[in-house]
């Protein structure tokens, strides 16, 4: 399987080549040359597989430069009971009103980002080892992504992580989670600024190409193809667990921000998985809901982006959306380029002419949820079922409930556990979310973090002091 760019300007590359890259050289995003088809018989033959075995079956369709046995060893190391708490890895949790949760948040950081990051950590170490290379991950986080990356890469050979976070602006739980890591290859830098300042510094340093190559900087952000591929697996898993017969249909609702999670659902559907609908749920930052309603994509500025009680969905632009647009315009890289040129020039592009296809061809529908919806949904689900859901999952439940159809299971992706967002839970049900037993001592652990002023040169110096330059 070779990979190409959504903008058409990249020579075909292998999985291992694109694994360590961010944007394609032409500014586009990497995609496989085709989506491998999975027929009904193959799908049925997968019913008895463990999660790790299923992951190896699906990922090998996209990764042909890692031998099969090695790939299975990687998925076994990523997806096992010691990392995800039980053999199921992704449990299904029935709710009410025709909805079921797809439990994607049983990993070390209690959010679905662990699903992809745990595999990424294994495959990074493997590929770097084969190439006798090292890589220094530089990233900025406001919470979920950074901690998932650190837990996946801690102690891995050949990889260092330099993670910038805004000093004093993450929840106590999130801080304790990240800063309590004592592994030598994990570097937490708390900058006296906001998340956007941290991200600007990452952009400045990664944009200094000389520095970037001398210090072998890399990224693990949401456009990483291996993350998208790893997420495809749990759509198949959800379908296999929610159905008993070939051809049965399932719908999924996906709390969305950067369009990474639901893009994986789209790819599963393109591979032939019988998905009826992909329901995209946003919070008040409804750029994507607006697109599916109007056909116009109009990202917002940082100032126009609301700080909401489902903060991991507070995005202004959806970094993976270009991969879906590529399909919408029949994989015509010229049309993709024209869209993004128009976006640069006018702040928006208009694909309303293709609107009839959004649902009929691709199964997409969308809806938005608000703070009041979130609170009411958390409370209602708790009262009716005893299950406590987190604010992001609540956005999904709220929107998904409006699209339930008789006889078709609706799986809502549980993108985080409530313990991570205690304040909103308290507001919704009048008491805090329970902290899982194994994390109760977290806040008392010693923390390892370097607090510094918000200055790219300080971060540059820190990296130089901790990594040997390459000639
Ligand atoms: C990252 C995240 C999302 C959004 O996922 P995308 O792939 O960016 O669409 C939703 N909920 C939680 C809890 C997250 O951490």
UniProtKB/TrEMBL annotation:
Residues 107-336 form the Tryptophan synthase beta chain-like PALP domain. Keywords: Lyase, Pyridoxal phosphate. The modification N6-(pyridoxal phosphate)lysine is found at residue 113. Transmembrane segments: none annotated. Signal peptide: none annotated. Its EC number is 4.2.3.1. SUPFAM superfamilies: Tryptophan synthase beta subunit-like PLP-dependent enzymes (SSF53686). It holds the Pfam family PALP. The keyword Kinase does not apply. Its cofactor is pyridoxal 5'-phosphate. GO terms for biological process: threonine biosynthetic process. It is an enzyme of class 4 (lyase). Residues 2-79 form the Threonine synthase N-terminal domain. One of its GO terms (molecular function) is threonine synthase activity. Belongs to the threonine synthase family. This is Threonine synthase.
């Amino acid at each position: 399987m070779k990979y190409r760019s959504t903008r058409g300007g990249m020579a075909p590359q292998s999985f291992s080549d694109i694994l360590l890259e961010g944007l394609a050289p032409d500014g586009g995003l990497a995609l496989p040359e085709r989506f491998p088809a999975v027929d009904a018989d193959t799908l049925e033959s997968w019913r008895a597989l463990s999660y790790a075995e299923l992951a190896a079956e699906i990922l090998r369709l996209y990764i042909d430069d890692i031998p099969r046995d090695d790939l299975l060893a990687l998925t076994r190391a990523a997806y096992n009971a010691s990392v995800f708490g039980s053999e199921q890895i992704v449990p299904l949790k029935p709710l009410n009103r025709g909805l079921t949760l797809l439990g994607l948040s049983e990993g070390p950081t209690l959010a679905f980002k662990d699903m992809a990051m745990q595999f990424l950590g294994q495959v990074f170490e493997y590929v770097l080892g084969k190439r006798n290379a090292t890589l220094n991950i530089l990233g900025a986080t406001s919470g979920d992504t950074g901690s998932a990356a650190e837990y996946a890469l801690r102690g891995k050979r050949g990889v260092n992580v330099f993670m910038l976070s805004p000093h004093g602006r993450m929840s106590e739980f999130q801080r304790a989670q990240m800063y309590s890591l004592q592994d030598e290859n994990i570097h937490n830098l708390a900058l006296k600024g906001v998340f956007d300042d941290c991200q600007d510094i990452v952009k400045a340093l990664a944009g200094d190409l000389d520095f970037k190559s001398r210090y072998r900087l890399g990224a693990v952000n949401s456009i990483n193809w291996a993350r998208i591929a790893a997420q495809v697996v749990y759509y198949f898993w959800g379908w296999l667990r929610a159905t008993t017969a070939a051809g049965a249909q399932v719908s999924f609702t996906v709390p969305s921000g950067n369009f990474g999670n639901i893009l994986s659902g789209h790819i599963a559907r393109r591979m032939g998985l019988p998905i009826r609908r992909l329901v995209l749920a946003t919070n008040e930052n409804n750029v994507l809901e607006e697109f599916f309603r109007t056909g116009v994509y109009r990202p917002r500025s940082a100032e126009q982006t609301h700080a909401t009680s489902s903060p991991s969905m507070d995005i202004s632009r959806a970094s993976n959306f270009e991969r879906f647009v590529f399909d919408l315009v029949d994989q015509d890289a010229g049309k993709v380029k024209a869209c993004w040129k128009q976006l640069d020039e006018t702040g928006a592009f208009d694909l309303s002419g293709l609107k009839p296809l959004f649902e009929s061809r691709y199964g997409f529908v969308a809806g938005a949820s608000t703070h009041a919806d979130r609170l009411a949904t958390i409370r209602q689900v708790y009262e009716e079922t005893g299950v406590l859901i987190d604010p992001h999952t609540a956005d999904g439940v709220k929107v998904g409930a409006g699209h339930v159809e008789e006889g078709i299971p609706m799986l809502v992706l549980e993108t985080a556990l409530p313990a991570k967002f205690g304040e909103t839970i308290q507001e919704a049900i009048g008491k805090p979310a329970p902290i899982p037993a194994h994390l109760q001592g977290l806040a008392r652990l010693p923390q390892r973090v370097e607090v510094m002023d918000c200055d790219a040169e300080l971060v540059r110096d820190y990296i130089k002091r901790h990594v040997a330059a390459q000639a």
